């Protein structure tokens, strides 16, 4: 069967050859290595800013400076490796998110994805003219139509609009924007969330004559998933988990192998120290925590504004840094609900070829 071409996606004045955005994975999992490889294949490669400076030699002395330096370095490194589209993921919950946002824009990041909070003040943090003229393509990540509406209503007062929106469902990895009881509720599935967010954005598109593509995210793993959500009206998809088990992913090989060794039942929901549920791969570290064993740590800087470090049993930034480096006794691995489907370490190019084949197969079966 001849491989079918996926539709292109236009965000602002940028045309993506493939409507695939690599999700940002913090604390060093998606840096310039993975991002540049995805960009080379026609998608959007995304560098995650969260915890990006954790391995800088002076991190404990000046955290903000270490984060800013590391982010600038990774954006520049990605630019040297690819002519493709490079984005940056910045969590609103980060204490230094404003500095990171300005630094990413200074370095010429093509898109800024903003989650873990509502980015209502962005038109005040940066020059709103940058948003209006398209030089700052800001893309909020939301988990509901209500959140999308709040952002659009707030920004529209300054005649500003997001370059796109990402709607992330409860099958995603890492921290989740849902309550525990909502994670398995069909009413909160991505299939329900996407149409509701599309309805909200289309209202603003018609009224203000703007284009706001909606990108589906959370549990999207195959080309068949891509076809399903594009058929529902999504302009593109965001995928993170599928890219972890690639040679180009910036995590240690032991991090990647934890996906390959995982079974479906190993994907568990945890209560993160930052006050949100999260999805991770079950291991001894998480078992110790669930059984009440504390992991002593010293907080040198409150990196996440929502973390009550005096009451938690471990430092999540430290645990995720250890995992990035392959120390799974001292940390754990975040992953989407489909992480257990990974069977081998492959290349980003192989992933794209597989996605295209799966997309074609699904499209043929649907005819």
Beta percentage is 15-25%
Report how far the terminal alpha carbons are from each other: 14 Å
Rg estimate, integer Å = 19 Å
Mean pLDDT: 90
Structural class: alpha/beta
Oligomer: single chain
What's the arrangement of strands in the largest beta sheet? 3-11-10-8-7-6-5-4
State the major sheet. 8 strands, parallel
Q: What is the assigned CATH homologous superfamily of the largest domain?
A: Aldolase class I
Number of strands: 14
Question: How is the CATH topology of the largest domain named?
Answer: TIM Barrel
Q: What is the CATH class of the largest domain?
A: Alpha Beta
User: What CATH architecture of the largest domain do you see?
Assistant: Alpha-Beta Barrel
The DSSP helix count reads: 12
Shape: globular
Q: H/E series, N to C?
A: EEEHEHEHEHHEHEEHEHEHEEHHEH
Q: What is the domain tally?
A: 2
Unreliable segments (pLDDT under 50, ≥5 consecutive)?
A: none
Kindly state the percentage of residues in helix. 25-40%
